[in-house]
Automatic annotation (TrEMBL):
It comes from the Bacteria. InterPro entries: CorA_cytoplasmic_dom (IPR045861), CorA_TM1_TM2 (IPR045863), MgTranspt_CorA/ZnTranspt_ZntB (IPR002523). PANTHER family: CORA FAMILY METAL ION TRANSPORTER (EUROFUNG). It comes from Actinomadura rubrisoli. This is Magnesium transporter. The chain crosses the membrane at residues 291-309, 321-341. It holds the Pfam family CorA. The keyword ATP-binding does not apply. It is a multi-pass membrane protein.
Length: 347
């Protein structure tokens, strides 16, 4: 057996070598866990029982690897192609007898946004998750299922399969909320740097650019989730059982919050960049005022000494009292200019 009870034993069932990790399987009956870790080929056997819900998880499968799963569940080749393709748009496609979902779980790692892609096939009594790599925290999803028994207030296998989907969507949207909250904290740090007296321009530029890049990436995967959940809530499609409507409505509210939060942060970052340019311009004006003021002060002794350096006779020429008067003029004018500039806050 694998390291998890739900992982199938590759040595006993060589045909289960699908993807980069052993597949994980579970079956619930009347809301209670009945079996786990069974071979993929037995999925259809469990689905023949009308009161059983099945979950199958695959990690990094190839197109050929999904052939067995496609035969077991009757999946369309277009949906299978989307499941194994990377960087698909977050979306929901409806096929006969099942729906296909593609979504992203974000993670802030060392200041950068990392996206973990996940696809899912959702039938009336089956859920198949396809992870593009091992970054998606599938154990957290299993813990959610185990912490909320499927039999609590839900009647029928269809409602229980819908609850599996609800917990999956709720986990993804919650992680998006965590990511946007982390980016909000980063925006606060950049704001403090902008108004810091040290004004580290290079650090502000680097962090603001990275923050804006992360926000754009998060918005690109979070915004379509509103459309996905809104489609699930459409009563005419009858995808979600009525008993689960409040659950999915809560997820939809969270998707709206993520979208509004990211839009607000984008505006905040743009305002911070404008503020940085304005403050930088003001600081440059202050520096220019100081340089100009000191230049004016230095111009006084330069003018006096230059005037008295003329090669013509002038009052006090070659006299001790003439030197004293010129020194007094230099000191008085320089001090006077310094006082005037200081009062005007130019120095």
């Amino acid at each position: 057996m694998g390291s998890h009870p739900s992982e199938t034993d590759i040595e006993q069932h060589p045909g289960n070598r699908i993807g980069s990790a052993p597949p994980r399987t579970r079956a619930w009956r009347d809301g209670k866990l009945e079996a786990e870790g069974f071979p993929v080929a037995e999925v259809s056997d469990y689905l023949e029982r009308p009161d059983v819900v099945v979950w199958l998880d695959l990690c990094s499968p190839r197109h050929d690897d999904l052939r067995v799963v496609s035969e077991e569940l009757g999946l369309d080749h277009v949906a299978v192609e989307d499941a194994v393709s990377r960087h698909e748009r977050a979306k929901l496609d409806q096929y006969r007898g099942y729906i296909f979902l593609n979504m992203y779980e974000p993670e802030i790692r060392d200041g950068d946004l990392v996206l973990h892609e996940l696809s899912a096939f959702v039938a009336e009594r089956a859920l198949v998750t396809v992870r593009q790599e091992g970054g998606f925290d599938i154990d957290a999803l299993v813990r959610r299922w185990d912490g909320s028994p499927l039999s609590d207030g839900l009647e029928g296998a269809g409602a229980q399969a819908g609850y599996l989907l609800y917990e999956l969507l709720d986990l993804v949207v919650d992680r998006q909320l965590d990511a946007v909250q982390a980016l909000d904290g980063e925006a606060d740090d950049v704001e403090e740097l902008v108004f810091d007296d040290a004004f580290p321009v290079k650090e502000i530029q680097e962090r603001s650019f990275r923050l804006r890049k992360n926000l754009v990436a998060l918005r690109r995967v979070a915004l379509p989730m509103r459309e996905v959940v809104n489609t699930l809530l459409r009563r005419d499609l009858r995808i979600v059982p009525p008993a689960l409507m409040p659950y999915f409505q809560d997820v939809y509210d969270h998707t709206l919050r993520v979208g509004e939060w990211t839009d607000g942060l984008r505006d905040l970052v743009a305002n911070l960049l404008d503020t940085r340019l304005a403050l930088q311009g003001n600081r440059m004006n202050e520096v220019m005022k100081k340089v100009t003021s000191w230049a004016a002060i230095i111009a006084v002794p330069t003018a006096v000494t230059g005037f008295y350096g003329q090669n013509v006779p002038y009052p006090g020429s070659q006299q001790h009292w003439g030197f004293i008067i010129s020194a007094i003029v230099i000191v008085v004018c320089s001090v006077g200019l310094y006082v005037i500039f200081k009062r005007r806050d130019w120095l």
